[in-house]
């Protein structure tokens, strides 16, 4: 039985999960994946178990554990989280799994809420797994339901790349009958009869051919053949291309190959399309992933030729590229975005940590920030921190300074991966002052509760002090900032590792 409903891409992902019999969901908050997890939390029908995790690696490992026991699992992470779960992901491909495991990787073209603009499609090449890049609501539903099936057929996890625009897209979805009582595959332990090299050979001889056949023949990859100019796209850009071509008679004869499966790369399908056209324009977000596979043919334009910008695309970009397809390098996209041009995204003006940030600005030491609220204090007018490389990375970064500096890290970032940096700092006898912003929530990603690891920190670092900034401001007024600065200066003058927990309540949560 089937029924058609009008819905969003976000709802389509939810329905596909329900209809696929997902039993375990692991999630790490972050834009744009928080909205997906909150949808599953809000509409939980008690058919699945969902937990927030502080580490993407742990989230992936828990999903794999559920998989070997026959439970279909869904992993929700943003694109930078893919970097952490890559370790178990890549090994799981040759190790093999049981029930289907699908990773929803939330990419952020234009880096609206992220520390970088990386493209998760590349993990298909690195991990040798299938990557879907759905274009709209129906595509999202079909890709996710098929992803669980192909994951079990190939005995390997599958990645589905999503974006904020996909979540908000709307369209009709043909929903299949919910698969009640779905029994996922169990792990086959006979793989342990193989050497590590033998496991990789097994993958290439048995699993990879399944994935290649799917990529080449799947109806999810759509082709429309017309004139001598062709476009290749994937993801939400495919829908934008369809709309652009149909809205202007100038492009009525432009062919279009829309790829919902981008890894394994469908070389046969794409090569056939290329041979049929004199000129090709590749439109995609964020990086030239597809373009990098076909630029060698010479008649291909896209981001690398300057016809389209890196990052997010819209209809105007595609129209410009088509209008200038006869030019080798149009030279349109040469500007570099500044905060002044885009507009600031500052920390909350009433943030209770503001006295701390003003103190940090005045200090003549290097200060490592972390991915969280504190990173928004790096630009002027605050200029409170000097660096910010990764979530949980502040402590290790500060340990590399040429003299004792400060690591400013949120309590969530500390639990995520920062505590590993702290362990190394203690083990190496580093000189570093760690300031932990204890507000008990992951404030940048929606206020999810943060695990309290203070006692574990105390076991590592006896020189631990807690400063309740909220209470001090209430009791001491402006003198609270002076006292906090005195404590910071005192710790900076000492050798070794010191930790100050600065406690405040987030005004947002």
Q: What would you call the shape?
A: globular
Enter the CATH topology name of the largest domain: Rossmann fold
For this structure, what is the CATH class of the largest domain?
Answer: Alpha Beta
Q: What's the main sheet like?
A: 7 strands, mixed
Domain count: the total is 3
Question: Which strand order does the major sheet show?
Answer: 3-2-4-5-7-6-12
**Uncertain spans, ≥5 residues at pLDDT below 50?**
none
Distance between the termini: 44 Å
Mean pLDDT: 95
Full CATH superfamily name of the largest domain: Thiamin diphosphate (ThDP)-binding fold, Pyr/PP domains
Strand percentage lies at: 15-25%
Query: What is the number of strand segments?
Result: 21
Over the alpha carbons, how many angstroms does the gyration radius reach?
25 Å
The assigned structural class equals alpha/beta
Q: What's the helix count?
A: 19
| Helical residue percent band | 25-40%
CATH architecture of the largest domain: 3-Layer(aba) Sandwich
